[in-house]
């Protein structure tokens, strides 16, 4: 029997060093993508959930988790993808939202999504803070973002949609 | 037919619908009327391919013969595909694509709302995730159909033409067969009979806002759910499956 030389807390600490491949300013824990870590005699299993069904970053995140953990001696590592409960921007930490804003991406406005997501909202500009902004496109450079423009500072910016 | 076979068929059909519509929407990449719409159409295609991947993966697990989602996507001929015909029809103009998206996403709003209550945990989880994305697709399609329908004489005429052409492909979405009723008894499948009224009301309301006439309820085309397709599906597959057919087992 192999006795693991690491505990759950240490694994989470290592996971916190892995950035989101598409928004490198936040890590995968802050994004709320890591659901659990299960340590057994067979190794370490990391359970993650995708932000969007077709999120193309999932493959890279899976590879990053395995290589980062195994480089730190957490081996063998497996990554399991689950859909339930469905990911929501509710799981994004306040720290992550602040980091997004500082990075130039307006963070999700509401704590929850669904119907609120669909209503018209004022999204403050992450650059100048003005509320004189307008939606340019519901779909942005990635599935999780929409495109906006600020009419005060005239800068375009992305908004991380409530989901 | 065993319940296992019925469930395999059910997940497979759902996967095929997403996969084929995703392939069609992807064709708009670099061809949309303007950049933002290019991103929107391909973003929707991305959601659909993610859903297809989850559904086909599950179908493979249920089947229990070791087939992966890739095996199912790339190694079946057209007669073994079970998507609704509406998914495989060529994109036509932008109005046509948006009218199809409206018909399909409105259906999906009602369908996945119900499927998330399925007694099958995997289908329920995929449905709950899908529903969030579908709401967004629906909103987008609805806005465009109203904007175009309520726009110029030209854009109105194009939406009307698309509605007339696509109407006969909408009936298939509500068909149910033996496999569906078997799963319905177990609380796994959705009773699509119950979705018709909501669908027609919502579509009627949106088309009215778009100044578009509803076609008279008439002949409905059928076949996709039995593997009998239009001539268009084979062409989609020949392009999609080229690499695996030419270089079997190729990986990268």
Task: Describe what this molecule looks like in 3D.
The complex is a heterodimer of chains A (163) and B (252). Chain A is an alpha/beta fold. Chain A folds into 2 domains: 8-81, 2-Layer Sandwich (GMP Synthetase, Chain A, domain 3); 93-160, no CATH class. Chain A is built from 4 helices and 7 strands. Chain A has helices spanning 8-15, 58-71, 94-103, 114-118; strands spanning 34-40, 43-48, 77-81, 105-106, 133-137, 145-150, 156-160. A 4-stranded mixed sheet of chain A has the order 4-7-6-5. Chain A has a 3-stranded mixed sheet with strand order 1-2-3, covered by helices on one side. In chain A, strand 2 (43-48), helix 2 (58-71) and strand 3 form a beta-alpha-beta unit. In chain B, 65% of the residues lie in helices and 0% in strands. In chain B, helix 5 (94-115) packs antiparallel against helix 9. Chain B is globular. Chains A and B meet through helix 4 of A and helix 2 and helix 6 of B.
